[in-house]
Design a protein that fits this description.
The complex is a heterotrimer. Chain A is mainly α. Chain A has twelve helices and no strands. The chains are: A mainly alpha, B mainly alpha, C alpha/beta.
C-alpha cells in the first residue's frame, strides 16, 4: 500500500518537473557539446596567444586541462543554478495554483510529500550532472581527441554528491518564499553568489563550494574532496530538516 | 406514489410527508394493509434525507396510521382512523354549500375556517 | 447517544489580530447530513481546513472521527476515512482525468471501482482529457467523484455544487442522499440554501467567526414563527421588547414580527393589543438564515 502511494507521489513530482528537467538537460548538453566542439578553435587561439604573450591557454595545456577549466568549472556553476531551480515548486506553489487543499487532504504526511519532492529533485539533478559530463567523452572523438569515461564519471559523481545541497536549497527556498518565479530567481542568485564568494574566501578553500563542485583537488592531485562533500551533505541535511519543520507548522 | 415535498416551504419536510400519507389514507389512495415505499428507496427517489423519511414513518406509527415492521417495511394500519374524517365529509360539504349560497367566495370561506381554528387551538403548536 | 463524528471545543483561529473563527463548539453526529451556512468570509472554509489538519488552530481543540485535529500523525489516518472536496475545485492541470483517478485511488484501499465507472458514465467525463481543459462544472464533478469513491465514513464538502447547473445539482444531491442512506455522514458547506433545506437534517450557521445556530433543521423550522398583525389604528410599538422577538417591521397599519421562541406568550400579548387580524405562519430556512446573519 505504502509503495503504491510513494510511486504515485514520485510520478506526480516527475510530471510536474519534467519540462523543467528537459529544458535544463538541453541547456547543459548544448553547453557540454558546444564547449567540446570549440576545442580546436581554442587550441589555435592558444597558439597565437603563445606567440604574443608567451602564455599557454587551457587548450594548449591539454584536453584534460581544457576540460577542467573551460567545461567542468563552468558546468559546475551552471548546474548548481539549475539544481536550485529544479528544487523549487512544491506546496506553496500548489497553494497559489489552488491544488494544495486537495493534496493535503490525502492520507499522507507533509513530511512524506516534501521528502518525495526532495528525492525526485536530487535524482533529477544527479541525472543532469551525469548526462552533462557524459557528453564530454562522447563528443571529444568528434574533434579527434579523447577523454576517459571513467574520469568523466568520477567528476560527475563528485559534482552530484557535493551539489545535493543546491537542490535541497531550492526546496528550502520554495518552502519559505511564496510567489511565482521569486523562489527560483532568488535561489539561483544565491547559489551563484555563494559560488563566486567562495572563490574570494580562499582560506576556506577546502570547503569552498565552487572548488569542491568542480573537483579541483582531484584535478590537481587526485584527491577526492571528501571533506568538502561531507560538509555539503551535512548542510543539505540541515536545510532539509529546517524545511520539514517549516512545512509542518505552516498554515495552508 | 409520493409527491416531491417543497423544501423551501416553512413546513418541515417530515410533516409534509406525514400529511401526504394521511391525505392518501383519507381519500382511499392508500388502503389498510398497503405497503409504503422503503425508507431508503423513498429518500433516493424524492432526493431527501433518509433520516427525514424515517422520522415521518416513526411519527405516523406513533399516530397509529401505519405499522412499521422491522425488516418487512411499513404498512397502513387496518384500523383506519380516516373513518372519522370520512364521516365528517358530508357535514363540511353541507356547510360549504350553505355559505356559498349566501354569496361567500371560496377564499372567504377558507379564511373563516382558519380563524375559527386559530381561536380554538393553541396557536403555533404544530408539535 | 449517537457518536459525534466531528466535535470542536472553543476552536479559534486568529490571523494577525483578526479572529477568523471564534471559540467554535461544533457537533456533527454520526448518520446525519449537516449543512454549514454562512456568508462569504464568515469562517466556513477556515473551520473546514482546521478539521482536516491543513491549518493549525490558534486555540481550542477538535476531534474528527475520534482523533484530535492537533495530532498530525493521527490526522493522516483519519484522512484515509474521509472524502473531501475543497472550495478550490482545481486539480492537477497536467494530469488527465484517468491519471487523477489512478493517483487518488492509490491512497484508498477501499476504492470503489464500480462507483467510479458509474460516475464516469453518469457525469460523462472525458477520461483522456487533461483536467486543465475541463470546464468548471466538469472539474467539480471530477472532484466529487474523487471524494465519493473512497468509501469514506465521513464526507466533508466545501460548496459541492458550485458551478453546476440545476440538473447536475440534483444528480449530486441524489448521490449524496444515496450515500447517506448507505451510512455515510456528510458535513457540507453551501451558499445554496435550498439545497441545504432539501437534504440536511442538521444546520449550523456561522457568522463573523461565531456559531450562532446549531440544531436539527426540523426544530429550527418549528421554533421560528412569523406573526402578521393588522390594526385598525396606528401600530403600537412598545410591546416589542418581549424575549423571543428577533425582528419586527411595521408598515402603516400592518406589522410583521419574526420570533425564534416564546411564541405562545408573544401571540397572547399581540392578541391583547386587539388587532383586527393575527396570522401565524412558519418561516423557511432562507428567512431564518438572513435574520441570523443580519448586522445587528
Amino acid at each position: 500500500m505504502r509503495t503504491r502511494e510513494l510511486k504515485m507521489l514520485c510520478y506526480k513530482s516527475w510530471l510536474e518537473t519534467r519540462w523543467g528537467f528537459a529544458l535544463a538537460l538541453m541547456v547543459v548538453l548544448v553547453f557540454s557539446l558546444g564547449s567540446v566542439l570549440r576545442f580546436p578553435d581554442a587550441a589555435r587561439a592558444g597558439l597565437r596567444d603563445m606567440q604574443v604573450h608567451n602564455h599557454p591557454n587551457a587548450a594548449l595545456r591539454g584536453v584534460r586541462t581544457y576540460t577542467q577549466v573551460e567545461i567542468f568549472e563552468k558546468l559546475a556553476i551552471l548546474w548548481a543554478i539549475l539544481s536550485v531551480m529544479l528544487g523549487t515548486g512544491g506546496l506553496l506553489r500548489e497553494r497559489r495554483l489552488g491544488t494544495a487543499s486537495f493534496l493535503l487532504s490525502l492520507p499522507t504526511s507533509r513530511m512524506r510529500l516534501l521528502g518525495v519532492r526532495c528525492a525526485v529533485s536530487v535524482f533529477e539533478a544527479s541525472g543532469l550532472a551525469l548526462a552533462a559530463y557524459a557528453m564530454v567523452p562522447l563528443a571529444f572523438p568528434l574533434v579527434h581527441q579523447s577523454y576517459s569515461w571513467g574520469l568523466a564519471l568520477r567528476y560527475a559523481l563528485i559534482l552530484a554528491v557535493s551539489g545535493i545541497s543546491f537542490a535541497v536549497f531550492g526546496i528550502l527556498i520554495s518552502v519559505v518564499l511564496e510567489g511565482g518565479a521569486w523562489p527560483a530567481i532568488i535561489g539561483a542568485s544565491t547559489a551563484f553568489l555563494s559560488l563566486v564568494l567562495g572563490e574570494i574566501v580562499t582560506s576556506f578553500s577546502r570547503y569552498a563550494p565552487f572548488p569542491v563542485l568542480s573537483g579541483e583537488s582531484y584535478f590537481r592531485c587526485g584527491v577526492v574532496p571528501w571533506a568538502g562533500m561531507s560538509v555539503s551533505l551535512v548542510a543539505a541535511t540541515l536545510m532539509l530538516t529546517f524545511a520539514l519543520l517549516i512545512v509542518k507548522w505552516r498554515d495552508f | 406514489m409520493f409527491f416531491k415535498p417543497n423544501a423551501s416551504s416553512p413546513a418541515p419536510i417530515y410533516l409534509q410527508l406525514m400529511e401526504q400519507v394521511r391525505h392518501a389514507v383519507e381519500v382511499g389512495a392508500l388502503k389498510p394493509g398497503d405497503q409504503l415505499p422503503g425508507i431508503r428507496h423513498l429518500a433516493e427517489t424524492l432526493v431527501i434525507n433518509p433520516n427525514t423519511v424515517a422520522k415521518a414513518y416513526r411519527e405516523l406509527e406513533h399516530e397509529g396510521i401505519i405499522d412499521v415492521l422491522h425488516g418487512s417495511g411499513a404498512f397502513v394500519r387496518s384500523t383506519n382512523p380516516g373513518r372519522r374524517v370520512q364521516a365528517a365529509v358530508p357535514l363540511v360539504t353541507g356547510l360549504v354549500e350553505k355559505l356559498k349560497s349566501r354569496g361567500l367566495s371560496d377564499q372567504e370561506i377558507r379564511r373563516l375556517f382558519e380563524s375559527a381554528l386559530m381561536r380554538q387551538v393553541e396557536p403555533a403548536r404544530i408539535r | 447517544m449517537t457518536e459525534l463524528l466531528i466535535e470542536t471545543h472553543s476552536l479559534t483561529k486568529t490571523y494577525g489580530g483578526v479572529e477568523a473563527v471564534r471559540s467554535l463548539n461544533l457537533e456533527v453526529p454520526e448518520g446525519s447530513i449537516c449543512g454549514f451556512l454562512g456568508k462569504n468570509g464568515s469562517g466556513k472554509s477556515t473551520t473546514i481546513k482546521m478539521l482536516l489538519g491543513m491549518t493549525w488552530p490558534s486555540a481550542g481543540n477538535g476531534m474528527v472521527l475520534g482523533q484530535s485535529i492537533r495530532d498530525a500523525r493521527a490526522s493522516v489516518e483519519v484522512r484515509r476515512r474521509i472524502g473531501f472536496v475543497s472550495e478550490d475545485k482545481r486539480l492537477y492541470h497536467y494530469m488527465t482525468v484517468e491519471q487523477m483517478i489512478r493517483f487518488t485511488s492509490s491512497f484508498f484501499p477501499k476504492w470503489r471501482v464500480d462507483l467510479e465507472q458509474q460516475l464516469l458514465r453518469q457525469f460523462q467525463l472525458p477520461v483522456k482529457r487533461k483536467t486543465g481543459h475541463l470546464s468548471k462544472g466538469m472539474r467539480t464533478k471530477l472532484a466529487l467523484l474523487l471524494a465519493l469513491c473512497r468509501e469514506a465514513e465521513l464526507l466533508i464538502l466545501d460548496e459541492p455544487t458550485e458551478g453546476l447547473d440545476p440538473v447536475a445539482t440534483e444528480e449530486i444531491l441524489q448521490l449524496l442522499t444515496k450515500m447517506a442512506a448507505g451510512g455515510t455522514s456528510i458535513f457540507f458547506s453551501s451558499h445554496q440554501i435550498a439545497e441545504v433545506e432539501q437534504i440536511a437534517d442538521r444546520v449550523a450557521i456561522i457568522n463573523d467567526g461565531s456559531l450562532i445556530v446549531q440544531e436539527s433543521l426540523d426544530h429550527l423550522k418549528e421554533r421560528y414563527r412569523r406573526i402578521q398583525l393588522l390594526f385598525d389604528r396606528d401600530v403600537p410599538q412598545k410591546w416589542l421588547k418581549i424575549p423571543g422577538i428577533e425582528a419586527s417591521h411595521a408598515d402603516g397599519r400592518a406589522m410583521s414580527v419574526l420570533a425564534s421562541s416564546n411564541i405562545d406568550e408573544i401571540v397572547r400579548i399581540a392578541a391583547s393589543l386587539e388587532p383586527v387580524s393575527i396570522e401565524v405562519t412558519g418561516v423557511n430556512l432562507k428567512e431564518i438564515f438572513l435574520e441570523c446573519v443580519r448586522e445587528s
